[in-house]
Each structure stands twice: as structure tokens, then as C-alpha cells.
TrEMBL record, chain A:
Organism the protein comes from: Prochlorococcus marinus (strain MIT 9303)
InterPro entries registered for this protein in UniProt: ABC2_TM, ABC2_TM_bact-type, ABC_2_transport, T7SS_ABC-Transporter
Intracellular or extracellular location(s): Cell membrane; Membrane
Name of the protein this chain belongs to: Transport permease protein
GO cellular component: ATP-binding cassette (ABC) transporter complex
Predominant localisation class: membrane
Keyword vocabulary terms for this entry: Cell membrane, Membrane, Transmembrane, Transmembrane helix, Transport
Similarity-based family: Belongs to the ABC-2 integral membrane protein family.
Amino acid sequence: MTSPVAAVTTRAAEQGPLVDLVQETLALTRRLFLQLLRRPSTLIAGILQPLIWLVLFGALFSNAPEGLLPGGMSYGRFLGAGVIVFTAFSGALNAGLPVMFDREFGFLNRLLVAPLRSRSSIVLASVIYITSLSLLQSLAIMATAALLGYGWPGVSGLVLVLFTLLLLVFAFTALSLGLAFALPGHIELIAVIFVANLPLLFASTALAPLSFMPDWLGWLAALNPLTFAIEPIRAAYAGPLDLGAVLLDAPYGTVSGYGCLTVLMVVTVGLFLMIRPLLNRKLA
Amino acid sequence: MIELKQLEKSYGTVQALKGLSLKVPRGCLYGLLGPNGAGKTTTLRILCTLLAPDSGTVSVAGLNALSDPRAVRLELGYVAQEVAIDKILTGRELLQLQGDLYHLRSSDRDGRIAELIDCLGMQDWIDRRCGTYSGGMRRRIDLASGLLHQPQLLVLDEPTVGLDIESRSAIWQLLRELRAQGTTVLLSSHYLEEVEALADRMAIIDDGRVIAEGTPDQLKQQLGGDRVTLRVKEFSDDREAEQVRQLLQGVDGVRQVVVNRVQGFSLNLVVENEAVVPRLREQLDGAQLPVFALAHSRPSLDDVYLQATGRTLMDAELAVAGQRDSKLERKKAMR
């Protein structure tokens, strides 16, 4: 039996705060990815589900009369943008679940008793994990959509799609992590996710354009953050990219592509600022 | 090494700590003894910076744990009671994660892990997923993660609860070695034998306060007197026991004689010292009474506990057993 405290190694010299921060964040991120690889059902379901949406929902309205959708788009092409956004959105909304389980099972205490440089690394690891996962899923959907003949946005379009998704994922990951610390347990968190998920989808322009909707729903959809992510992506799919063009003819006025992205940015920054004090308090 | 002053902490209407103060000297193996619900875990959680007290001060290795928690976290290893473990990771991956959270360089980290695997005998299962581990294995992984960064202070919350005898003695052995190498060890326990066997110093905690403090021997000596249990027959009756009681009451050096009705009217005596025992025999011989059994012992920690709280540790355990709500306790521990 060797000695438990033998001085084969001495305590590591100070590495500097930034190196520490990177080390702890990477370690926490690695854990999340190891979990994903060893329990891949989340990943498989996360890619299969939107594909099923795309194929089945796309087929449901494939006989819609031509000229019904703006710009004479096919329904499949119209739906693609909606499904991409919805997938990224639900992924982000689930971001809080692993954190909630860590809270409930006491694993978080193991992290909190360690001399972390900043406890933001716990949040940061979740953001990195969910963002990569969502982007991966979205790329899988885009590839499938292309195979189904629903088009491909091109290089500049792709950049726009990824940028838009990043904003959306950041916003809802922040919200979900905030909820994971604010709610008492996973049952409540799942309930909130469940209630928020589908209504936000239906009250957006993911499945149908604003012109289809009764006035009250049109108002809801025109205020829904998902809509502001869907429209730029749809525009990227529709043809030559022009963010200056009017993308949303909302009841309160018209919104350009730049307008949509600005709204998304405001929502993202706003949610982060709202959640920050809560996280600081809970992780103090 | 540790100095806690006048700690108070309430959970809602329940006051868990009522002005608890404690000093643990450097290099000491210190035992906190008390029944479930006495405030041991709350004290340790405050010490480990997981919980802020409502009032009081906490100092660890000369550092103020309330104003500089990160510095304190660097100095201490904490082995919690309910082992939270990531079932999906292997033991080695868990230790690597832990090492990264303590910012060990990766070469140092892996060397240190190899050392601990060797020392805690984890070779055969360290690369299996934690979900497959037995209680003893989990506890060893937890000890390893507490020791990974070579802390000056190791804090353990009831480290041997629910473990088999073999794992328990392995952990005792390890704690003794750590102490021998200069690590300060603080453990809580509601096992008398554990504290008695391990601790250099100890405190008895009851109802959120320290009610007795010192070395186990000091505490027993303070209580004073030896214990003698005596029977004249295997089963005496009430009258006979009373007769013997009156006979022995007058013997020089006998402080107290009680008839124990629960144990077949045996007699429990508190005597000044061993020298009294032969005098007891003489007295009984003189009255033509036989001695069926006579046992002599030093006071035990249970006697100390009884003296300090007016109840035995077991009674205290039973009293809170019905009131404890494990779900509520998990909530309390949640952040």
C-alpha cells in the first residue's frame, strides 16, 4: 500500500485564471459529451424526430394549391426553415434538464465544493454542449431536406442560418438554465418545457404563413421569437440573400431581415441579463 | 485548523444550529459524534462552503471561509454522506473530471490518480462505469476524489454508514495513515465505536450545539468512576436484588447502586476505582451470598453521552427516526 498523500506530485503551480477557466469548462463539457455518446438515444431521437416532421408534415400539405404560399414556394421548402428552427429551439429548451438532475442528485455539490475559477463554467459547459448538439441536428435536417429536394441555402445562406440558430439557441438555453435553477425539481421543469414547446411552434410561422392565420393568432405569431428566426432562414432558402428586404408583414408593420436579427439579438441579450442575477445568486 | 464560532442556521422554522462553536487543532483526527438530526451535516456543509450560516464565523487554515470560499475550497477535501456519482462515467473519468476542477496539470493529475488507484485498491474496477459499483467502491471513489488534490484537511460526513466491515476497516486504516502523515481529518459519525476507535479529540453534538468536547479518555474521566455489573444468581427476584443493593450500598468506594429491572434484576454500580471490586466480593462472601457474574468496565462513550444529554445515543436515534423526512433533507441539500 502506497501512502495516500505521498509527495510524488506537488500541488500544481498556479496556471493563471484563464487556463484554469478553460480547463474546468472543457472538463465539464467533456462530461456532457461522454454522457451523450454513451446514451445516444437523445441524439438519435433528436435527429429522427425533425426528419419525421419534415417527411410527414411535408407530405400532408404537398397537394396545397400552387401560389398559396408567398413566392410560389413548395410546402416542403416552406416547412424546412420551420423544422430547423423548431429543432434548435426544443434542443435549447431541454438544456436545463442535465443541470436539474445534477442539482437533484447532488452532483452539483461536488462541483460547488471544488475551487472553480468561476462558476459560470458550469453554465458555459451547458451552452457549448447544447449549441454544438443543436447545430449538428440542424445540419442533419438541412442535408435531408436537400435530399428530399427542398433546396439548399448556399454558402452565404448557410452562414446566415447558423448565425440565426446561434442567437436562438443562446436565448433559450439561457432561459432553460434559469428555469433549472428557479424551479423545484425536474417534474416542474419538464412540465414547463411541455407546455411551452408545441404552442410556441403553432403560434409561429413555422407551419403556415401569417396570411393564413386569424388576426389574433397572427399577432401572437408576429410577436413570437421563433418567427424572427424562421423568416431569415426561410429567406436564405428562397433565393438570393437580401436581408434588407421585408420578410415579415406583421399586423403592426413590416419587418426586414435585419429587423428580425435585431429582435433576436435583443431577446438573447435580454434573457441573459434577466437570468444572470438568478444564476449568480444560486451559484454564489 | 478549523475554528467555528457561534454558528446559527435555520431551515424555515427548524433551527438546525443554535450557536455551535468548535475548534479543531492541526494534524488531529477529530470526531463529531451525535445522533441523526443533531446538526452534524449542516455543520460540515457550512465548513465546506456549500452553505452559508445565518450568523457566526468560519475559519479554515487561517482563511475566512465566508469571505474567501475559493481559498478554503483549495485546502479541503470533502467526502459527502450521500454519494453523488455520475453513473455513466467510469471511475477514472470521474477522477479526471475532479482533477480538472481542482486545476491539476494533466500529467500530475493522471499520476496522482494512478497513485490513489494503487493505494485504495481500485485497479480491478476503476475503468468500469460508476453505475455498476457497490457501496464500498463508491465510497472509495469518493475518498479518492476528496484526496486527489492533497488537501491539508479532509472532511468526511459519516464515511462508513451502511458499509460492510471490511470496507469500514479499510477506511479506518486510511484515515489513520492520513493523520500520521499530517493531514487534519474531521469526520462525523453516529457510531460510538467509530469515534472511540479513531478520534484523537471529539465533540458531542446534540440539538445544534456542542455539549461536550475533549479527548475520548478525558470525557470518560470527567464522568469519573468505573462501572460494575453484578448478579448473585442468574435470575434474582425483586426482593433478593433489593437486599443485595442495600448490602453493597454501604461498601467503601461505592457511589451508586441501581437495580436494573430490565436485565433480570442485575445490579449496576458506579465505583471509584478497580480496588473496590475485591471489597464487593468480601461483602457478599460475608453475607453468604454467591456471585454468579461480575463485570467491571471503564465508562464508555455511551455513558458520556448519557450523562451529557440525559438519554442514550440509541434513544436519541429512535426519537428522531420517526421525524426525519428524507425527501425534505434532499431538498435542503439542493442548490
